[in-house]
Design a protein that fits this description.
mainly alpha; de novo design (two linked rop proteins)
């Protein structure tokens, strides 16, 4: 069975949805908020999907795992910045209602994807001299 292209992965699609929602949110902030917290937040959330995509294109399971771990780190960084934005009253309740389900679903999906990649490389086929 072949591997899925990153665009077909549910975890990648969720990362895209979250990134788009955060972009719309931060784009409406005043200049100071956008320039400080907004830039960091958008970079962090965009890195989640970007790292999933990059890992899937690297060609080895080790590289894929490494980039999924980077994606997970970026997701936690995103959580941090969203918490700051919420505490600073930059996120209205109706937007929080959109972001929260995505933030709740992404970590377990990302962990499941990481687990599905495997911990060891597949065994090479036996050569004729091994038989």
């Amino acid at each position: 069975m072949g591997t899925l292209h990153f665009k077909e992965l549910i975890v990648y699609q969720l990362a895209e949805k979250l990134a788009d929602a955060v972009w719309q949110l931060a784009a409406g902030w005043a200049a100071f908020e956008k320039d400080t917290l907004g830039r960091q937040l958008v970079r962090a959330v965009d890195s989640v999907g970007a790292n999933i995509a990059e890992g899937s294109g690297r060609g080895t399971y080790q590289d894929n795992r490494r980039f999924v771990l980077y994606a997970r780190g970026s997701l936690y960084e995103t959580q941090h910045f969203l918490r700051q934005a919420y505490r600073r009253q930059l996120i209205p309740a109706h937007i929080s209602d959109v972001l929260k389900p995505l933030m709740d679903e992404l970590p377990p999906r990302l962990n499941a994807y990481l687990a599905s990649i495997g911990k060891t490389s597949p065994k090479p086929p036996l050569s004729t001299s091994d038989q």
